[in-house]
Write a structure and sequence with these properties.
10 helices, SDR_fam, NADP, 351 residues, alpha/beta, oxidoreductase activity
Amino acid sequence: MSILYGIFFALRQLLTSEGFPPKPQFEEKDVPDLSGKVVFPLFHAREYMRPNLPIVYLITGGAGGIGFELVKILYSKNANVYIAGRSSDNAIAAVNKIREEYPKSDGGLAFLQLDLSDLTSIKPAVDKFLQKERRLDAVVHNAGIMITPTHWRTVQGWDIQFGTNVIGPFVLQRHLQNILVETAKIAPKNSVRTVFLSSISAPLAPPGGIDYKNLESKGVSAFSAIQYFDSGLKYAHSKCANTIMAMGFAQKFKDTGIIAVSANPGNLNTDLLRHSLIAWVFFRPWLYPARYGAITELYATLSPEINDTSNGALIIPWGRTGPIRQDILDSCQEGGAVKFWDWLDENTQGF
């Protein structure tokens, strides 16, 4: 399969329903109260309420962009939400702004400091989280970076985009796995979710979705001298990897009660494009307000339409199941997704 086919597939999606999505069918108004009380029908005549452990969500990159919009929605419905990220200043500003906007919320907002580009920061952050919480209903791996300078690296030496968009979220997911499994035992069926963020650019990934030869050199490619072209391909590689991660999780942990999906949140006007003026100019006609991306993530996180038959699915704007490039789908169904999950596990031992 040539890169030309990937470009054709991505352009087709951009120019059709992913670039011009239909009206969302699951929005803020469709979200129930998330205060942590569960309502049970009793003899079909009346209801009673049973106190439960508070419902908790963890959103990486929740201090800005679509993550911020998702946090607002969840908090407005009385959920307890952790904003995970690097900057305490940005998180505090976000928390103050959200509390001002929703003064009547009974939910909670907290900051969890971690840096996805430095794997040594992740376990200590999760340890602090686990000291405070006994339940986690969903983790949304929302944080990411796009089309950065090609020489940028993570602390551990990975290409900055693959390291931040894939390696870091994988390690975070591994450390949160046990509490998600335990939550699935007490939460309503299919309600415990893991969401990995993909992109409309994911079809530009190499054949099968993962270029292991490239990963062996931690992201050094033959196109490194061509700044934006190389960075764009690396971004696509990382976003496709997120889709494959979701499918790998779904296959490997299908009996845990956790639903894993990937989501293309949409083409959005956020600071994700801050490193590339060229990309911003090109995509400008297709950019929507960040709130719409949060609606896609909200669907992936809470929609009752998602169940065990949706495990591993790709969610597209503004809350629908979408297509995955056929060779990538075939590879995943033939063991490629679990292979990649195991590769990630092997290459992040010690963190």
